[in-house]
């Protein structure tokens, strides 16, 4: 059986890792992947990706890096994404992974106007989602965790926007029948979201945001997590 890749583009901050684990662990749990099915490739550390034809699917993590830096490892991964799209490989990118997928396919990434978006945010499901095999099951509004400074400002041609927030119009997009990406974090639980807000509180205050209010607004996000799980099941990647 072909493995499912978790393409690691970064690490959670050390204090968060120590208490809550890290991206591969959260992705495995969120997408309901069997431990013996996954293969973690740390592209930020220079590890090479296998050919798309050798894997069953790929999930692309977040990162503290910025897509606009165009680091060599990031640009190599963008090239791999283009090859994977040619193979119609099931792919789901999250946060940095979302931005990198759009960048790889011809979109434009840069800093989100108005500053960072962080906390449990309310998302709006767009009309285009009605015909989507996964997003059609979402209600008109749902909550998800987010923390990002950059965003996809211009989408690649042929991309369908499924979900938006008040701050970011491109929170969930579909690139083809097997490839999606989300700016929000379906793999986060509420404790992880609170840990990120606590870590970013000084930056938030400096930028005019109220971290205490944002912290209090953190809530469970079962529908965002369910979408991640359903993607995995829909493409035969999940354990159950």
Uncertain runs: none
Order of secondary-structure elements? EHHEEHEHEEEEEEEHHH
Structural class by secondary-structure content = alpha/beta
Which strands sit side by side, in order, in the main sheet? Answer: 2-1-3-4-11-10-9-6-7
Main pleated sheet: 9 strands, mixed
Proportion of strand residues: 15-25%
For the terminal residues, how far apart are their CA atoms?
A: 16 Å
What is the residue-mean pLDDT, rounded to a whole number?
97
Helix segment tally:
7
EC number: 6.3.5.2
Protein name: GMP synthase (Glutamine-hydrolyzing)
GO molecular function: GMP synthase (glutamine-hydrolyzing) activity
Domain Glutamine amidotransferase: 54-197
Tell me what you see in this structure.
There is one protein chain. With 240 residues, the chain is of the alpha/beta class. The protein is 31% helix and 25% strand. The protein is built from seven helices and eleven strands. The protein has helices at residues 14-20, 23-30, 72-86, 96-104, 190-206, 211-216, 222-234; strands spanning 4-8, 38-42, 57-60, 91-94, 108-111, 117-125, 141-148, 150-154, 160-165, 172-176, 179-182. Strands 2-1-3-4-11-10-9-6-7 form a nine-stranded mixed beta sheet, sandwiched between helices. Strands 5-8 form a two-stranded antiparallel sheet. A hairpin with a 2-residue loop joins strand 10 (172-176) and strand 11. The longest helix is centred in the C-terminal third of the chain and has 17 residues, at 190-206. The chain starts with a strand and ends in a 6-residue tail after the last helix. The model has no long low-confidence stretch (mean pLDDT 97). This is GMP synthase (Glutamine-hydrolyzing). GO terms for molecular function: GMP synthase (glutamine-hydrolyzing) activity. It holds the Pfam family GATase. Residues 54-197 form the Glutamine amidotransferase domain. It comes from Dyella japonica.
């Amino acid at each position: 059986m072909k493995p499912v890749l978790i393409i690691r583009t970064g690490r959670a901050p050390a204090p968060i890792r120590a208490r809550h684990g890290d991206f591969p662990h959260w992705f495995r749990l969120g997408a309901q992947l069997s431990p013996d099915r996954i293969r973690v490739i740390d592209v930020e550390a220079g590890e090479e990706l296998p050919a798309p034809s050798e894997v069953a699917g790929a999930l692309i993590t977040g990162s503290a890096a910025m897509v606009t830096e165009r680091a060599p490892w990031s640009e190599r991964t963008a090239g791999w994404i283009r090859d994977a799209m040619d193979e119609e490989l099931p792919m789901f990118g999250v946060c940095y992974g979302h931005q990198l997928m759009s960048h790889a396919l011809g979109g434009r990434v840069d800093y989100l106007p108005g500053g960072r978006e962080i906390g449990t945010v309310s998302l709006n499901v767009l009309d285009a989602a009605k015909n989507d095999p996964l997003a059609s099951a979402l209600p008109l509004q749902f909550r998800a965790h987010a923390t990002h400074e950059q965003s996809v400002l211009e989408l690649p041609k042929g991309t369908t926007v499924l979900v938006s927030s008040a701050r970011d119009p491109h929170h969930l997009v579909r690139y083809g029948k097997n490839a999606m990406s989300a700016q929000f974090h379906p793999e986060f639980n509420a404790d992880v979201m609170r840990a990120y807000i606590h870590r970013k509180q000084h930056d938030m205050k400096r930028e005019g945001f109220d971290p205490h209010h944002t912290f209090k607004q953190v809530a469970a996000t079962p529908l965002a997590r369910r979408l991640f799980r359903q993607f995995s099941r829909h493409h035969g990647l999940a354990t159950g």
